[in-house]
């Protein structure tokens, strides 16, 4: 491998040589500590045979290490200034660059077109903070989803994904994520290893998809979970009856599921939400159908 891109010296050299600087509109912050990106690549990639997908490669700090560990890295880049720089600086035939907004891409089609039979797919990214949640939910909802997602994101957001019931950060996002994946923290990352330096610290977390018998109508289940957290200070009963527009139905649902009307959503585990939904599926369908028609 050539000298690491993720250093102050090489980041400044690339910026000067190509007259390219971080664009705030794209949420760009360049990593200047090679040990950080190497650890991310090590955590994300199990084998050189893995198909790796990266969003927002920037000037290639992480991409360089991904190409060392995988024989096929697909990098989605929205900034038209950067593909030529990536090719010149990384110089690897393992790298495929798509000049495209990942949020507009058909990720199912892109993975199907490249995934070999039995091949593991790893999604790896230093995500721009402003599009973290939309990108992750796009991956969670994909039919051809990756096997793992390893991402650097704002530390506060990472804590929400890692939160367990009764934690302060626990919310609907925590529940929906737990339904799809196992989540673990890889490491904390200081704001001081970026140029320009952001205002907050970061965290690298990894999602591993789990095989689960899906509930009927997952979109409706996710809608219910979000409704249960609509107003955190309110009881589960109050949030449910507001969502269903039916006090008696909300009361009946809780009784049937063995939940106290005074309980709050943040006190429930994933299995409690699944039980609440599955034991009252017909009631929910009837209420939502009646009031949403």
Alpha-carbon Rg, integer: 22 Å
Q: If helices are DSSP runs of H or I spanning 4 or more residues, what is the number of helices? A: 13
Overall mean pLDDT? 92
* CATH fold annotation of the largest domain: Rossmann fold
Largest sheet: 7 strands, mixed
Bin the helical content.
40-55%
Instruction: Give, in order, the helices and strands.
Output: HEHEHEHEHEHEHHEEEHHHHH
- Sum up the overall morphology in one term: elongated
* CATH homologous superfamily annotation of the largest domain: Vaccinia Virus protein VP39
Sequence stretches where pLDDT stays below 50 over 5 or more residues: none
The CA-CA distance between the termini, in Å, is 60 Å
Number of strands: 9
Structural class: alpha/beta
- Taken as a percent bin, the fraction of beta residues is 15-25%
CATH architecture of the largest domain: 3-Layer(aba) Sandwich
Strand order of the largest sheet: 4-3-2-5-6-9-7
User: How many domain units?
Assistant: 2
Keywords: Methyltransferase, Transferase
Organism: Dubosiella muris
EC number: 2.1.1.182
Protein name: Ribosomal RNA small subunit methyltransferase A
Would you give an account of this structure?
The chain is of the alpha/beta class. The chain has two domains: 8-209, Rossmann fold, CATH 3.40.50; 218-292, Helicase, Ruva Protein, domain 3. The chain has 13 helices and nine strands. The protein has helices at 8-18, 34-44, 61-69, 83-90, 107-114, 132-141, 155-162, 172-180, 218-228, 236-244, 247-257, 270-278, 281-292, and strands at 30-31, 51-55, 72-77, 95-99, 121-126, 148-154, 181-189, 194-195, 202-209. Strands 4-3-2-5-6-9-7 form a seven-stranded mixed sheet. It has a two-stranded antiparallel ribbon with strand order 1-8. Strand 2 (51-55), helix 3 (61-69) and strand 3 form a beta-alpha-beta unit. The longest helix is centred in the last third of the chain and has 12 residues, at 281-292. The termini are far apart.
